[in-house]
């Protein structure tokens, strides 16, 4: 097979429900880890590790995959662990298990999920796991039905997490200004550009080799030979053109949602990730696309300004997302679960 065929094969093998009935507890636990790895995560760094025992799975951060320039306090990393946690809990119910979460961030930076028997429940959110993706392209500006907006807002609620959801064009316009200001700031930061470049996968061969990072086609960009992609990104990157892309993207969106951690603790960042993941899966079930526009979250001064605009009184905005109706893009890949189970 050539690289494109191999990539397509890996996509089908990655983004799927279980092929066979699984009864062995150890095999079920491994399958729960596989579902967890299909969760959203920062820059597709997949910053997680897992330990399995007979009735517990521990989720741990992989600090070798952190992004210190854009995420110096690792709140994106811990939100990613929250996304994985939510996926695992939903998958557990599909296998007749109920997961109970306990978090130890003081000693071990661990999320413990203990399981007990539970009636099998293959929820709408579980079914959506294999179809969820961050779709970084133009949408069609079609309005979302009010009842669906209410459902999205309700399902995103969580302790110590504040939600701001708006379809008001004035809000989208004002939030766009923060995105452009932050994106301009980041693209002038050589350390940011260098780190971002490390996670770019310009073609299928690179995506297959790494099975992580931002695959060009999956982000709505043209695939290129690696040497051309590196040269273009280094010497030909146009900030104005990139800003215009975000202007078009946000103007084409139906709405935005912001997730704010009311207390800046790792546990609350994890809960924020769980909240976002439920939103993402429900949006997917409704036929909606969504994408992060986290630039304002990653520049402290602008993060504060955006928080003030959204009347966030406690904590900080952790995640900013646009949503709407749009096309399906090529998928990102995931590392084998054997690479993340320790």
Automatic annotation (TrEMBL):
Transmembrane segments: none annotated. GO terms for molecular function: oxidoreductase activity. Gene3D superfamilies: NADH Oxidase (3.40.109.10). It comes from the Bacteria. This is Tat pathway signal protein. It comes from Aquimarina algiphila.
């Amino acid at each position: 097979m050539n690289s494109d065929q191999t990539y397509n094969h890996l996509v089908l093998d990655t983004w799927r429900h279980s092929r066979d009935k699984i009864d062995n507890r150890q095999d079920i636990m491994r399958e729960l880890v596989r579902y967890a790895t299909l969760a959203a995560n920062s820059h597709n760094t997949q910053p997680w590790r897992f330990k399995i025992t007979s009735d517990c799975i521990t989720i741990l951060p992989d600090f070798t995959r952190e992004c210190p320039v854009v995420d110096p306090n690792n709140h994106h990393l811990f939100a990613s662990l929250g996304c994985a946690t939510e996926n695992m809990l939903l998958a557990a119910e599909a296998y007749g298990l109920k997961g109970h979460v306990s978090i130890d961030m003081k000693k071990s930076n661990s999320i413990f999920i203990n399981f007990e028997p539970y009636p099998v429940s293959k929820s709408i959110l579980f079914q959506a796991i294999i179809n969820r993706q961050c779709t970084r392209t133009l949408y069609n500006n079609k309005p979302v039905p009010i009842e669906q907006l209410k459902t999205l807002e309700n399902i995103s609620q969580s302790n110590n997490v504040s939600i701001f959801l708006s379809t008001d064009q004035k809000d989208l316009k004002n939030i766009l200004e923060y995105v452009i200001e932050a994106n301009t700031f980041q693209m002038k930061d050589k350390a940011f550009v260098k780190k971002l470049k490390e996670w770019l996968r310009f073609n299928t061969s690179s995506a297959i080799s790494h099975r992580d990072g931002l695959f060009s086609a999956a982000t709505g960009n043209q695939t290129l030979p690696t040497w051309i992609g590196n040269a273009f990104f280094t010497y030909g990157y146009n900030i104005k053109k990139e800003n215009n892309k975000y202007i078009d993207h946000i103007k084409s969106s139906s709405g935005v949602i912001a997730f704010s951690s009311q207390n800046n603790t790792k546990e609350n960042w994890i809960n924020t990730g769980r909240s976002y993941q439920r939103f993402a899966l429900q949006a997917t079930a409704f036929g909606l696309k969504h994408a992060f526009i986290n630039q304002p979250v990653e520049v402290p001064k602008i993060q504060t300004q955006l928080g003030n605009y959204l009347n966030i009184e406690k904590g900080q905005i952790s995640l900013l997302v646009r949503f709407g109706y749009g096309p399906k893009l090529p998928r990102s890949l995931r590392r084998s679960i054997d690479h993340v189970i320790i």
